[in-house]
């Protein structure tokens, strides 16, 4: 690590490989590194949790004894929107790291926004970063993109269904 530190003037937290490692270990982003089946099952549990929460909130706001079909549909819609926002946040974080891993030059700040520098990666650092990006981060970004497409199409379907019910 010390030899890499001498070659790279970029601060430790702004180096793309270290950004990848910190993102991989963060609470919000670590679940997206799971295999697709496990990740989708956790998203499904999160979705069900949100539906139940929204149903309870709407039941207390409406102050009725039963829950209507429209209340259930709106709870599903809000849960899908919340899930879509979560997936979008995950997608933005991982795609940012992927862009920095694939880039041949890195913009970094030494002590603040006013003293930005540009560092050109050496061939070995660029190769290592691109391999990590290609085999570790790109599959995550592709998985998140597909899930975003599915959840967004479900949102559109629910909205169209609500429009047709009126």
Shape: elongated
The total of helices stands at 5
Strand content: 5-15%
Uncertain segments: none
Total domains:
1
Strands, count: 2
Order of helices and strands: HHHHEEH
- The first-to-last residue Cα distance is 63 Å
Major sheet attributes: 2 strands, antiparallel
Helix content range: over 70%
Question: What is the arithmetic mean of pLDDT?
Answer: 91
Keywords: Chloroplast, Membrane, Plastid, Transmembrane, Transmembrane helix
Transmembrane segments: 39-61, 67-92, 147-164
Subcellular location: Plastid
Model description:
- The protein is mostly helical and 166 residues long.
- It has one domain.
- The chain contains five helices and two strands.
- A two-stranded antiparallel ribbon has the order 1-2.
- α2 runs antiparallel to α4, α3 runs antiparallel to α4 and α4 runs antiparallel to α5.
- The mean pLDDT is 91.
- It is found in: Plastid.
- Keywords: Chloroplast, Membrane, Plastid, Transmembrane, Transmembrane helix.
- It holds the Pfam family CGLD27-like.
Features:
6% strand; 166 residues; two-stranded antiparallel sheet; mainly alpha; 72% helix; single chain
